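User: Predict the full complex structure for these chains.
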Amino acid sequence: MLLALAAVFSNAGFFLGLPGSGIPWLILALAIAALVCAAVGIMRAFRQPQVYGGKVSSSILGVVSLLICGFAALISVHSRDLPVATGAPQVGQKVPEFTLADTNGNKVSLGQLLKIEGRDAVLRAGGVTSANYNPAPKAVLLVFYRGYW
Amino acid sequence: MRPVAISVDTPEVSRNLATKAGYTFPILSDPTAETIRRYNLLHKAGGPEGSDIARPAEFLVDSSGTVRWTNFTEDVRIRAKADEMLAAARGVK
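Assistant: Here is the predicted structure of the two-chain assembly.
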């Protein structure tokens, strides 16, 4: 049962480590270790119920561990559920031109983003007017993100 | 290097995000996902309630509009690191 508890705690570690952890394999390793611990814990509890607490409580802990691990696995699977980007522009290719609204509703084109210099208040987010001199950049980093933040 | 963020969020949503997070780089809105589609980055029904969104992707584009570096993650939890992007940008003369 102690081991089953350890399993639950290692899962807690997974949840704490989730934001920006950047190492999903560790999460998976933790979940697998947790399951092994839970299985061993339950087996011990059933063999020696007096030493390792009751069969019922260890079973409950085991099931809880399993549920948490299942949830962890679900997140892992869902996180990798992305369409392939084979048709996307590759290194050496030209990117398609676009014109989109910025946070102030002003239309901004890629051409502008690549060339604009000077006091470009249009390019400042959050309605903040920039007094800074912004030279034309050497490059633009286009970051497509999922949104709904 | 000028970072530019693009998503299906409306200008209002992006403005809130920029204000809250203190972002000063341009955040562009593609609510119809037209540009996202043209870049072949559409994640069909990837958003809440089956809405179409962009799959995460980063492109470093030089002044001629040519791609110099890309990153297409296969796991939403893993994104390009700032160091990588800055190193790629330093390579553009």
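Chain A has a mean pLDDT of 72.
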